[in-house]
Amino acid sequence: MEALTKADADKLDKGLATHGGGRLRPRDAATLILLDRKGDDVLVLMGRRHAAHAFMPGKFVFPGGRTDPADSRIPTATALDQHEEAKLTAGPGRTSRARARAIALSAVRETYEEAGLLIGRKGAFATTRRDWQGFVEHGVAPSLEALRFVARAITPPNRVRRFDTRFFSAWRGDVAVELPDGGPTNELEELVWLPLAKAKQADIPDITRMILDELEKRLADDPLLRPGGPVPFYRLVRNRFTRELL
Question: Can you tell me the mean pLDDT for 137-166?
């Protein structure tokens, strides 16, 4: 574990402050960073939040949101890689295997709802859960084996809302169906593929920029993003922002 510099700590506090909540227990959430390659560039998918939103209006973000406990009961074509599951269940919070599965699946669900991208495999899929009917209608069984756990960050205390967010990554080739009109929630008014360098210059929260820095370094060391790579974890420990590796 290492303490962050004051500049980085200020950025992290600012970036997470809009998520936060008093002494509330952080709620599990997940975000998906979808990647694509174009020549020598790695592109990331980002969406602009509507200007009318009270939460981060006009900011570019990745698809993501809160974990629904029912997500753990959704059948999948493939399971989480065992190395990724081990990383998800490590660290504070006593995350069970079922909870880790739910968190990963929430990233898949949110990517469909906000971006219209269904990660999985073509084939028969059935569930009564309303949030997953898009997968039923398009004949896509959600898949988890392609997800890579790339970062974790917990909102500091004394905020209106708090989240324990796990950041995942996957490749565009893992998307079975791309809906032309985006996702059904219409939370993002613009979806764009940006080179990593340009994405970091966009109007994004500071924590997002820090996670992109981390991902860029990991890709430099491992362009294939193989399972079990280092996962930076940002949180407040004894009133000091820290970064540790899971």
Answer: 92
